[in-house]
Design a protein that fits this description.
The structure holds two protein chains of two kinds.
Chain A lengths: L1 H24 L5 H22 L16 H28 L1 H11 L4 E3 H7 L2 H14 L3 E4 L2 E4 L1 H16 L7
Antiparallel strand pairs in A: 2-3
Chain B lengths: L1 H23 L5 H22 L3 H4 L10 H27 L1 H10 L6 E2 H7 L2 H14 L3 E4 L2 E4 L1 H16 L7
Antiparallel strand pairs in B: 2-3
Helix pairs in contact in B: 1-2, 1-4, 2-4
The chains are: A mainly alpha, B mainly alpha.
């Protein structure tokens, strides 16, 4: 089991290195898609490496390398994919977090304090909404015609599922 | 497989219990419930793991892993990862601006909404208010006479977020 875990964590570290390097050199237009492509490519490398390397990778303690190769590989892939998911969560928090942006604006302000109306000036909430609308247009969840926004079938389905979750878990209207 | 199956079963139990809890009670401290229930699931993971048979008794050779410390910890890690996959889904449903927008648009599937109509239903000031309230509640901000200031925790978080934004050249974002 240890080989799959080592390869998964190693693959994830490589992903981080490529991701940071690429974003430092030139921010891609479709950021998430680029991250997903790197993950996929490294995932394929991980599978190949798993199949062609010895079960102890030449340095692992033999006691932890006795698992069947299929469960080892499966486990390694699961860990690798979840590490990517966890990172995506963090990435979106940094990139799009509304609350994070509010804290940054307050912290950068003179005297490190702002009123709600000042925050609306530094960071107009309509900007946040427009950015989301643009993203939803790009991902085909909504369409825009004559200044009116409508859900696509995909958007309508997402709204139905999330609306159900909100109601079922009593999360309020939120947003 | 024993650890993975135990992790998965524990997570299914966690999912059911927290869903029943949120469905039957109006929970105000949601993060506390989500994390608290996950921690409460750890002894359950231990129990399920010990109840499951050894891999060699039920799985084909390729899927057999020894029931050692590594398999046990690996299952716990899987339980943790499943939670980290669920938590963003929960918060997306709860507070995503995009989801709320699509729900508002779903109420007018044929005609759609203009930006003005949308913001009349989904008001900016409430959006901001809700976040400020939550940040104060979570100890990132302090509120005094209508002024908001960052606490030490908020300052460290804001600095870390700014650093990552600069590192990845993400712009101000939000």
């Amino acid at each position: 089991m240890l080989k799959g875990l080592v390869l998964a964590f190693g693959g994830f570290v490589l992903f981080l290195a490529f991701h940071v390097l690429l974003f430092r050199l030139r921010v891609p237009e479709r950021r998430f898609r680029t991250m997903a492509h790197i993950t996929f490519a490294l995932g394929v490398v991980l599978i190949v490496l798993h199949r062609i390397t010895p079960s102890d990778l030449g340095f692992l303690p033999p006691v932890y390398t006795t698992a069947g190769w299929a469960v080892d590989l499966l486990n390694g892939l699961v860990v690798y994919i979840f590490l990517f998911f966890c990172y995506c969560h963090f990435y979106f928090l940094v990139d799009r977090g509304f609350s994070g942006r509010i804290m940054i604006e307050i912290d950068n302000a003179y005297g490190r304090r702002l009123r709600a109306q000042d925050i609306s000036i530094c960071y107009p909430p309509e900007m946040a909404l427009r950015r989301r609308l643009d993203e939803m247009l790009e991902t085909n969840r909504i369409v825009e015609a004559d200044g009116r926004y409508r859900n696509t079938t995909k958007g309508q389905r997402t709204a139905a599922v999330m609306g159900f979750v909100k109601r079922f878990l009593q999360l309020g209207e939120g947003g | 497989m024993r650890g993975l199956v135990a992790g998965l079963l524990t997570f299914v139990a966690y999912l059911i219990v927290q869903a029943v809890m949120f469905h039957s009670l109006k929970v105000s401290r949601r993060a506390l419930v989500l994390v608290g229930f996950w921690i409460a699931g750890l002894p359950l993971y231990e129990m399920i793991y010990h109840m499951l048979p050894d891999d060699k008794d039920i799985w084909p050779t390729l899927f057999v892993a020894p029931s050692d410390l590594l398999t046990y910890l690996n299952g716990g890690l899987f339980y943790f990862f499943l939670f980290t996959g669920y938590a963003p889904f929960f918060y997306t449903a709860e507070s995503s601006v995009g989801v709320r927008t699509m729900i508002e648009l779903a109420s007018e599937p044929g005609r759609g909404l203009t930006l003005e109509e949308l913001t009349r239903r989904y008001r900016y000031d409430r959006m901001l208010e809700r976040r400020l309230r939550r940040l104060v509640h979570a100890g990132y901000l302090l509120e005094e006479d209508g002024w908001y200031r960052t606490t030490d925790r908020g300052r460290v978080t804001a600095a870390a977020l700014s650093w990552f934004k600069r590192l990845l050249r993400l712009g101000p974002g939000g």
